[in-house]
Amino acid sequence: NEFLIPSVTSITGSINSEERIKRWMDSQIICATPQTIESDIINKRYSLSKLVSSTANDNDSYKCFVNSSN
After folding, report:
1. What is the pLDDT of residues 12-55, one digit of tens each?
2. Torsion angles phi and psi, residue 53, rounded to 5
3. 14, 22, 25, 32 - which has most CB atoms within 10 Å?
4. How far apart are CA 9 and CA 24, in angstroms?
5. Considering the entire predicted model, what is its pTM?
6. CA-CA-CA-CA torsion sign (13, 15, 28, 51)
């Protein structure tokens, strides 16, 4: 039943990069600003290789990512 209790976090630019990396690696569901994710990908802090899903809200200010890394 562990799959019913996912680890959830948020990632924004106000969080230092080391903490963002940790949150990305440790979480299954991530709510984040697209600009922060884009910057982290460009700077090779983590990749989208294990990304399962990405969903945006109506104005694309936040996205929800589902990660299969853990």
Report:
1. 999 999 999 999 999 988 888 888 999 999 999 998 888 888 88
2. -155, 150
3. 32
4. 8
5. 0.77
6. positive
